[in-house]
Amino acid sequence: MxxxxxxxxxxxxxxxxxxxxxxxxxxxxxxxVLERNGVRVEFPAEQTCCGQFxxxxxxxxxxxxxxxxFIEVFERGDSDIVALSGxxxxxxxxxxxxxxxxxxLAHGASEAEATAWEHRAQHTADRIQELSQWLSQRMDDSxxxxxxxxxxxxxxxxxxxxxxxxxxxxxxxxxSGIDVMELEDxxxxxxxxxxxxxxxxxxxxxxxxxxxxxxxxxxDAGATALTSADLGCLLHxxxxxxxxxxxxxxxxxxxxLDSSGRTPPGTGRG
Amino acid sequence: MAGILPSDPRPWPERRDAGLGNATMRTTIGVVTRRFxxxxxxxxxxxxxxxxARQVAVQAKRRAVRHMDxxxxxxxxKIESHGGQTxxxxxxxxxxxxxxxxxxxxxxxxxxxxxSMLSEEIALNRGLEKAGxxxxxxxxxxxxxxxxxxxxxxxxxxxxxxxxxxxxRLLDDDARSVEMETPxxxxxxxxxxxxxxxxxxxxxxxxxxxxxxxxxxxxxGTLVLITNEGNADMVTSLPPVLVSIVGVExxxxxxxxxxYLIQQPAMNGIGQRLSSYTTLxxxxxxxxxxxxxxxxxxxxxxxxxxxxxxxPFEDVLSCIRCGACLNVCPVFRQVGGHAYGGVxxxxxxxxxxxxxxxxxxxxxxxxxxxxxxxACGEACPMDIDLPGHVLRLRKAKVARCxxxxxxxxSYRLWSQVWSTSAxxxxxxxxxxxxxxxxxxxxxxxxxxxxxxxxxxxxxxPPIAPEMFHEWWQRTRGNAHGQQK
Lengths: 270, 484
Fold this sequence. Notes:
The complex is a heterodimer. Chain A has helices at about 15-20, 25-35, 50-55, 60-75, 85-105, 110-125, 130-135, 155-160, 170-175, 195-200, 200-220, 230-245, 255-260; strands spanning about 10-15, 40, 80-85, 130, 150-155, 180, 225-230, 250. Chain A is an alpha/beta fold. Chain A folds into two domains: about 10-135, no CATH class; about 140-260, Rossmann fold, CATH 3.40.50. In chain A, helix 12 (about 230-245) links the parallel strand 7 and strand 8 (about 250). In chain A, helix 11 (about 200-220) packs across helix 12. Chain A is globular. Among the domains of chain B are: about 25-165 and about 205-305, NagB/RpiA/CoA transferase-like (Rossmann fold, 3-Layer(aba) Sandwich), CATH 3.40.50.10420; about 165-200, no CATH class; about 425-475, no CATH class. Chain B starts with 11 loop residues before the first helix and ends in an 8-residue tail after the last helix. Chain B has helices at about 10-20, 25-45, 50-65, 70-80, 90-105, 115-120, 125-130, 140-145, 165-175, 190-205, 230-235, 255-260, 265-270, 325-330, 330-335, 345-355, 365-370, 375-380, 385-400, 405-420, 420-435, 470-475, and strands spanning about 85-90, 110-115, 135, 210, 215, 220-225, 240-245, 250, 275-280, 295-300, 440, 445. By secondary structure, chain B is α/β, with parallel strands linked by helices. At the A-B interface, helix 1, helix 2, strand 2, helix 3 and helix 4 of A face helix 1, helix 15, helix 18, helix 19 and helix 20 of B.
């Protein structure tokens, strides 16, 4: 982690549509955390949504429209792209190149044009990371003095299995003094699944209830909040808790890191 | 050619709600799938060479599936050189017809059967019973659900949806119907002891044995059956006529390939290094042999399988029916096997059922029974790209207009609007004004269109008074990011 010296690290923030519209304080918290560590944050203002909602539902041409827009916004520049969702980052990393290539070919583009889109997508994909992934690579090995705040962590499925970033959220949280508690059946999906939560709400809700069951056990064991690197999962679980008239604090990892005061890279604040 | 597969005539919402409403099933399925999936993780953790062997097995299976056309004549010739007879059935109907003909040629009254998913796929029992032949299942789980007139709810554990009390009740009725003593208790040992003596009668009196097949080795003409109860040993050695129905994708090339594959179903399905019994059949009884059937008929069944060769879905044919994908699937754990409405439940079922039937049977499954969590892809020992196939099938459905028109318009409009930032921002500002209609106590309680489903069971925070891009604009202006 560069600090105070000649080089200033710079990142471009991808807030995601859910954070932008429904919980902007997540992105504000991320900006705080990054800037506190001397990172210069840029917010490419033309950004919208990664298109995963359409992609997962089978509407690949529609998803490709959003993917091409995303690529046009983010392909300029070489600084890292920090995404506030593991699932959206996974979409860009795992699906974009094939998606824009196939869509170009399906709509009359030449092989050369399709390959050009594929390369542009790959160039963007190579630069994107989810926030805790990005931070964990810049962490020093100091240990926090106090780890008295206990929080339950929900790992989104795409973060866990597509990005294979299973250790990072825990690592940055622990570095910030959070005692991270694993939920029972942690490997099970919370049932969000993008628009699956709307089109198949009975199954989606049954899964939310199973996750909330595990959460209440974690609460009995001392967890004071639920955190995750994915706001989609959190809104789904928080929305279900609200409908059941239950209250349990739900925080995005960025909010936890911001409020903990001790930011992961550890050395940045001095 | 598309295959023929049976399906539950009830629509998905009805099947799903029956599953979600069955608390006993959800409890037992939860216990079974957790035990199996943790077993799978444990056995790979404890056994260092397992991962490498698995990778060799995947390659062997992939090779065999790719060269099915060459391996099938080879294995048929080998079996016939040992005195067996072989047949090729293009679809379910032809397979059933062949089996009925073989049974009738031998005046078969009663047939005993090992567990076989293919026999479920071709609805064999129904076909034989229609021809007046009694079929008795000899796998304990299959025997239980046969008593209940149900279909398997799990590829590997067909009665996984039932608890001991329910099983005891079924076996009690069975005992009374043949004037036998009922099981002493609900303890698994007592239930099994009863089934053992009950089935003994059937083993000794049956005219024909029917098996499926886990693997069929082309090099040696050997059929491999894996069981945990030893019932396949009885079915293949006692009745005078033996018929084996085997999917064309079960052929593997060499004995060496088999040695890598043979552990995979048990390791990945239940977390055991090898199944308790492995039965190998290479031909009918030869002069001087003490046991075995006098005749062995092998019916190879295609039923849509070869149509997947050379497509992006070819790896589906590598499935070894271990059930690992079901055991980790969150949707399976909630709705249970019967909600799927087909023979194959869980992730493999939602992919394979529509694929084998050219999207004619249960095409809703890839859309309704998957959250795209990728757990199945991680668990599959044959590296079948199950999550990828779910997405490919959803795409294929849109391409073939097997989607709802209203959904299509929603996704199209949504994507068009959000593909420029000006329209994206305007749409959110408009939604922020419109949402006042649905606000109560600071939470959104409803919304129109696709989003309606969300609000059936969940609240949502409203669109923020100051969205992030507005906050950035206010506090940072155009310092870093430029707005169009």
